[in-house]
Amino acid sequence: MSYLELTNICKNYQVGKQTFNVLKDINLQFELGEFVAIVGESGGGKTTLMNIIGGLDHDFTGTVSIAGQPLDYHHERQLDQYRREVIGYISQTYNLIGHLTVLENVMLALDMTKLSHGDRLRRAHELLANVGLTAQIKKYPQQLSGGQKQRVAIARALAGDPKILIADEPTGALDADNTADVMAMLQKIAREGRLVICVTHSQRVAGAATQIAELVNGRIKSQPVTTQNVGTTQTVASLPARPLSYWVSVMMAFKHMRHTWIWNTLIVVGTAIGLFAVMLFNGLGTGIKGYINHEMNALVDPQSIMVMHQADNAKDRDEQAAAVYDPAVAGGIAARMPVFTDSQLTALRDLKHVTNVEPGISATNATIAIGQQKYAAPELTTWTSSDPTRQLKAGHVAGDNQIVLDKSSIAQKWSATRWRQLVGRAVTVSYQTFNQKGQPVTVARVLTVAGIVDSTSEVGLNAVNYTTMQSMRSAARVSTQPTFVSVRIKSRVQNQVVVNEINHLSINGKHPFAATSIAATLDSFNTYVNIATKVLAAIAGISLIVSALMIIVTMFMSVSARMREIGILRSLGERRRDIRRLFTSEALMLGIISATLATGLSYLAERGLNHGLAKLTGGYALVQIQLGNVIAIFVIAIIIAWLAAILPARRAARANPIKALAAE
Ligand SMILES: Nc1ncnc2c1ncn2[C@@H]1O[C@H](COP(=O)(O)OP(=O)(O)OP(=O)(O)O)[C@@H](O)[C@H]1O
């Protein structure tokens, strides 16, 4: 039993309908320690035979046995392992990876061994020293001479301590001196106890071999002749191999990315702009929403709900409707508003989440006389704690027998410039309403102006306190029962629930209350802003499709450009999944870098815009990019990159190693 036995090897190539028998029933046996030269005419099938021995070709018939064990060529994992552990490969074209240094090229093969990183590094240096390249380890292949490249290839082929070294025309591109050096190395390698199979046209190389086999027209013309005795053979201890680790794949992908950085930078910038736009729109949405809520909350208290009493009958309803302010009838009789009874106030107070119920009275069509001048106040109401004091532009909230006047509809009409001077002045406030008997009566009192308020309300805000209003009304013998109440709740999140509860509250089979709350309006407004933000972000997201296409195109171009590298890696024993990982890692890295750049850009834009708009918003940050947005962008970028890499990576992984090695 020989170490390597080829039995009945036949290989055909099918070109169209024509079949070419390239290898015809090859039977050969070789021992460890031999240096075999395979010679023969061009096209005789030498490379084809080497591809079969090297475990690159599995489309043939016959058996290849190693130490008596037939190899299963249809068992991909076994074949990958065979290439990693048993075979070392050198070729006329050196097959070095251009974007890796001399040291890295050798390390690549060592990375598939079980040695520790330190031992791998030590061994790589040792192997390169053995071929006389210590000084060149940091160079890239294109910075080496042909002879030096072939030495790197030899060092790499020996990295995993292979039992068989296949050398396909190793000296084909070398001058006489380099040829002699390489030959001496191969002889030494064989003497160490390895089987060296060398395809050659050179008589000189063949002369150095211990056996010569001639392959003519697909057949072994003559059985191998032993030209020399095999030198001292020792058995080499083989290095335990393992598949390429994930980390090494990722590092390789990184090195390639660095190598093609200009092109990759363009892709990263393109993708980052798309991601940036999505992130900015989301941040802007959050900011605008926050800003509007902030502004609204400053104007009205989101924790308070305004409750009106529904008119009890049709007559009252008509009266209530007629009470809507009409400037033409300013100063007319105020409608008698439906009032809250004590038990109704208790019913409201007993509702869940309600902390306080504050009664109020409002009357329409009041007149405010300042000296000789009379001004129409569409509404005179009582100040509740939900009225924001922030709107007070002068003075303070009204105390007993005091009034707060509306700035634009009263105070500024009195004097556009001196309106603040109204504070402290006495004004006569009056309005007409109906008493219990349905007779019109006038409610009037001289009050002191406590403050001026800049109201957002259409009808302006002229307000006294509840005690003053009650006292004015009781003096005129009209009802002092509240016409509205302001209900306070614990938190604004319960707003909608409480509003619904109040509106559906049933007393004596009727729903007497109508509750309104700014928070509920705000919630629907927030929904609109959310929709608008998401739509804008989605539109910006379309650019991400372009980014994905860019990554796909780049990856496909990269696969085509790196076909040869794929072949080299496969011949070194890398599995299909290692190749797939190489390309997916590169795409994922592009995605992550793009997301990082997008985050940086967004951060700068956020700062710039917020700074620029600070005057307009009173310092409120209109762009608010949150951690969630950043995480989402990273997830999107990774998904896009991963999806974009699927097809190119699959193509790379499925490439035929022989065709890949032959790629230009
Ligand atoms: N993929 C292929 N499809 C069809 N025919 C092929 C293919 N690869 C090789 N051949 C043919 O197989 C035959 C053997 O090719 P091979 O490369 O093994 O020869 P060789 O002895 O190594 O030649 P050389 O010494 O010129 O390198 C040639 O006739 C070649 O045209």
From TrEMBL:
UniProt GO molecular function: ATP binding; ATP hydrolysis activity; transmembrane transporter activity
GO annotation terms (biological process): amino acid transport
Record keywords: Amino-acid transport, ATP-binding, Cell inner membrane, Cell membrane, Membrane, Nucleotide-binding, Transmembrane, Transmembrane helix, Transport
Pfam families: ABC_tran (PF00005), FtsX (PF02687), MacB_PCD (PF12704)
Family annotation (InterPro entries): AAA+_ATPase (IPR003593), ABC3_permease_C (IPR003838), ABC_transporter-like_ATP-bd (IPR003439), ABC_transporter-like_CS (IPR017871), MacB-like_ATP-bd (IPR017911), MacB_PCD (IPR025857), P-loop_NTPase (IPR027417)
Membrane topology type: Multi-pass membrane protein
Subcellular compartments: Cell inner membrane
Gene Ontology CC terms: membrane protein complex; plasma membrane
Domain of life according to the entry: Bacteria
TM annotation in the entry: 261-281, 535-561, 582-605, 625-649
Keyword presence, Cell inner membrane: yes
Domain ABC transporter: 4-242
SMART domains: AAA
Protein family according to the UniProt entry: Belongs to the ABC transporter superfamily. Macrolide exporter (TC 3.A.1.122) family.
Record's protein name: ABC transporter, ATP-binding and permease protein
Organism: Lactiplantibacillus plantarum CMPG5300
Lineage: Bacteria, Bacillati, Bacillota, Bacilli, Lactobacillales
